[in-house]
């Protein structure tokens, strides 16, 4: 790909008149102002970069939030763009009539290692399930508890008609083995499907598979056991053995909300979708184009494949596809018919005609059956389940005479038994999970569910008192993970377009489809993407991706105005003022990299010019503190530009800088305190772009003591030997040190500013 030349940089009114060292200062200051004032514009190749960041993350699901959190914690200037109006992606909770309704029944598995690293469990106020389940079989409910954690239920468990004594012994062994197997070994192990794994490898009987493992794991995988990797079974089984399952008291949405709360203020942009992604830029649905050193695409697989076509398609020619689930919520007056905080499983799968070796199982067959009764087409997986269920041999259980079509439920939970906060006082919240998304009306589904649960909990109560609150149909709840997943179970975090000769370095991916289809997989892939981004940023000087990623072309005569709070909107060419690029004739400006220019309209442009002029005056008097500029502009207190200035100024001068200001202040400091060469160097054509990108150039300038002017107040000249290190990361930290930023050695973060 041809390297594009750097276009002339546009300057705010007045700035282009400066030349020589003043001109350079002007450029540095303009750069600084850009970093302070947010959206501004640079034109390149028909793309108008409206603001720039070190990293843009696309998607505020758990994976994107973890990536952003990790990067922000390292002091990176990161922005997250999210198409929806809230964070969390698939992890959502709605409040309705005083109930907390998670969008689809989900559980919080406490042992997940990456989840543990990322979340503060205490703050989530986790409300626990009892370890085990209540299995509906043979017309009654039977407790199957984890004897290691609820030994008091051991006898009940042994007596339950859910498999033989031999089965129960084998499950105990399986549990011990699981905790002794390293996680890595699980994902490296020979792989088959879960049904074969349980029946053939582990030697479990059809009874325990059908009555316990099928509804339990089908509720997790949202797919028949025959379509799920045995590695996933071993992983999740181990997680259950190691820790509890629970729900945050405020609903599952507390998970992404906690992650989002760690991000710097202003770094989340909701309700704006990424339309196009390339090396160094992201084009958004509101018309803006963000420039970035690195871009993390943390959407679901389908969108990621649209945004990053070539590489993801080559990586996996066909997408994994998704699995759906349907969740019905009911309000029940008074207490629940079952008081224990337990998951209730439909162990009557035998009644549905399922058997090991088929893919039926309780809900799979039932779901399709509902649709079949209603004469409506279902999704492929459900239909397959129905076919097998219909042809299987009948069970000897008392329920066997019932037609499968009437029994869609996979599992039921009286959620307010687990977390009383999920229901208003005096009421019970019931969640009912149906695997898949049956193509039947809500009324048909509600009727089928109530009929089944009427048999379980009493027809009069269920049909007469249970009020349907909402039905959530989620066609894409999880990516499918059908064996063989092979060595690519965990996919790489970086998209190496450069390798393909297409210059795509700086593009990264995250999401549960690149790992296990769980919260843990999402967290882990977010962590890995962030790690890859950090390595990339350390190896590539700032500006490189943006400069190289946007192909050459003509400058668009467009400008921007403020107004929508997200960086403004386009003003048609005809209304645009004459291009500033044309009036920017200074030699020094043309030598600069593709920094965004200041918008020229309204108070913002005036303020920028005024701030700049004020800054210059202060600078000449050796008082180039930002505070000086702010105090000089007291009269314009109401103006957003002044308050923004003040905010950053205060952050920079306070002894302890809040996390939220760190990234922006760091970026600002990097630009402002870049060494200011004397006029001789400027005359040679000091090139900030080259200074940033070319280690030799940087070294040359730094080594040439004569090339420096005396540092101004509040800015220290770089003297430490580490400042000479050609690595951009080292240069950055030296620069920060020179500006009074103390680096916290243990965390690698800058933790403090001083003037
Ligand atoms: C019903 C249900 C039950 C589940 N149960 C469990 C469970 O019990 N345990 C468990 O561990 N996991 C469970 N999961 C899975 C878990 O929730 C997911 O694995 C995880 O949330 C995926 O996170 P993600 O960040 O990879 O993707 P997502 O959450 O899908 O996030 C992707 C984000 O990208 C955004 N986006 C998409 N396109 C664009 C664009 N062009 N521009 C900007 N933004 C865009 C989306 O709006 C979304 O916010 C369940 C999921 C569901 C739905």
From TrEMBL:
The keyword Acyltransferase does not apply. It holds the Pfam family Amino_oxidase. Its EC number is 1.4.3.-. Residues 379-406, 538-607, 707-755 are annotated as: Disordered. Keywords: FAD, Flavoprotein, Oxidoreductase. Residues 62-336, 413-534 form the Amine oxidase domain. FAD binds at residues 82-83. GO terms for molecular function: oxidoreductase activity. InterPro entries: Amino_oxidase, FAD/NAD-bd_sf, Flavin_amine_oxidase. Its cofactor is FAD. It is an enzyme of class 1 (oxidoreductase). This is Amine oxidase.
């Amino acid at each position: 790909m041809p390297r594009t030349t750097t276009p002339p940089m546009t300057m705010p009114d007045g700035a282009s008149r400066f030349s020589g060292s003043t001109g350079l200062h002007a450029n540095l200051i303009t750069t600084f102002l850009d970093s302070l004032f947010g959206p501004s514009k640079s034109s390149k190749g028909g793309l108008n970069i409206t603001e720039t960041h070190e990293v843009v993350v696309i998607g505020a699901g758990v994976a994107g939030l973890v990536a952003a959190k990790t990067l922000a914690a390292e002091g990176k200037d990161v922005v997250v763009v999210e198409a929806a109006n809230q964070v969390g992606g698939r992890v959502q909770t709605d409040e309705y009539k005083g109930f907390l309704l998670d969008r689809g029944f989900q559980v919080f598995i406490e042992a997940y290692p990456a989840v543990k690293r990322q979340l503060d469990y205490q703050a989530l106020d986790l409300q626990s399930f009892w370890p085990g389940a209540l299995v509906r079989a043979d017309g009654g409910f039977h407790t199957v508890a984890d004897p290691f954690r609820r030994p008091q239920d051991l006898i009940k468990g042994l007596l339950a008609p859910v498999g033989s004594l031999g089965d129960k012994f084998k499950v105990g062994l399986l549990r011990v083995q699981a905790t002794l197997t390293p996680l890595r070994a699980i994902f490296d192990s020979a792989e088959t499907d879960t049904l074969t794994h349980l029946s053939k490898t582990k030697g479990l009987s059809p009874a325990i598979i059908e009555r316990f493992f099928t509804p339990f794991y089908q509720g997790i995988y949202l797919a028949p056991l025959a379509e799920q990797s045995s590695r996933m079974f071993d992983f999740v089984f181990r997680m259950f053995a190691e820790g509890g399952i629970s729900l945050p008291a405020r609903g599952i949405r507390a998970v992404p909300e906690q992650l989002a709360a760690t991000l710097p203020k202003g770094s989340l942009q909701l309700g704006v979708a990424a339309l196009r992604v390339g090396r160094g830029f992201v084009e958004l649905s509101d018309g803006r184009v963000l420039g970035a050193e690195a871009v993390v695409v943390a959407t679901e697989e389908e969108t990621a494949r649209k945004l990053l076509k070539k590489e993801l398609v080559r990586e996996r020619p066909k997408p994994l596809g998704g699995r759906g689930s349907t969740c019905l919520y009911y309000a029940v007056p008074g207490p629940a018919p079952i008081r224990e905080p337990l998951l209730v499983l439909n162990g009557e799968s035998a009644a549905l005609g399922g058997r090991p070796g088929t893919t039926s199982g309780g809900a799979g067959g039932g779901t399709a059956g509902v649709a079949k009764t209603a004469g409506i087409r279902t999704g492929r997986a459900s239909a397959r389940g129905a076919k097998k269920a219909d042809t299987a041999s009948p069970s000897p259980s008392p329920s066997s005479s019932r037609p499968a079509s009437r029994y869609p439920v996979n599992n039921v939970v009286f959620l307010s038994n687990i977390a009383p906060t999920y229901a208003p006082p005096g009421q019970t919240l019931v969640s009912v999970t149906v695997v898949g998304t049956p193509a039947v009306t809500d009324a048909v589904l509600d009727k089928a569910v109530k009929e089944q649960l009427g048999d379980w909990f009493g027809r009069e109560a269920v049909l007469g008192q249970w009020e349907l609150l909402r039905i959530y149909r989620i066609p894409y709840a999880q990516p499918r993970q059908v064996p063989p997943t092979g060595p690519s179970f965990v996919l790489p975090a970086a998209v190496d377009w450069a390798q393909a000769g297409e210059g795509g370095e700086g593009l990264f991916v995250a999401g549960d489809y690149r790992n296990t289809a769980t919260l843990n997989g999402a967290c882990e892939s977010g962590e890995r993407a962030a790690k890859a981004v950090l390595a990339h940023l350390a190896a590539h000087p700032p500006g490189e991706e943006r400069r190289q990623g946007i192909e050459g072309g003509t400058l668009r005569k467009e400008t921007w105005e403020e107004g929508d709070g997200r960086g403004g909107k386009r003003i048609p060419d005809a209304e645009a003022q004459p291009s500033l690029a044309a009036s920017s004739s200074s030699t020094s400006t043309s030598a600069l990299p593709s920094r965004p220019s200041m918008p020229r309209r309204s108070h913002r442009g005036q303020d920028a010019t005024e701030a700049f002029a004020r800054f210059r005056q202060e600078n000449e008097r050796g008082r180039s503190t930002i505070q000086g500029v702010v105090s000089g502009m007291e009269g314009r207190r109401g103006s957003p530009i002044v308050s923004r200035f003040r905010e950053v100024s205060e952050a920079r001068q306070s002894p302890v800088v809040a996390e939220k200001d760190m990234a922006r202040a760091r970026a600002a400091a990097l630009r402002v305190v870049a060494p200011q060469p004397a006029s001789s160097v400027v005359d040679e054509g000091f090139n900030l772009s080259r200074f940033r990108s070319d280690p030799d150039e940087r070294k040359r300038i730094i080594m040439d003591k004569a090339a420096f002017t005396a540092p101004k107040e509040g800015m220290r000249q770089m003297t430490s030997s580490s400042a000479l290190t050609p690595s951009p990361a080292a240069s950055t930290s030296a620069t920060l040190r020179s500006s009074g930023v103390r680096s916290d050695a243990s965390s690698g973060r800058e933790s403090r500013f001083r003037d």
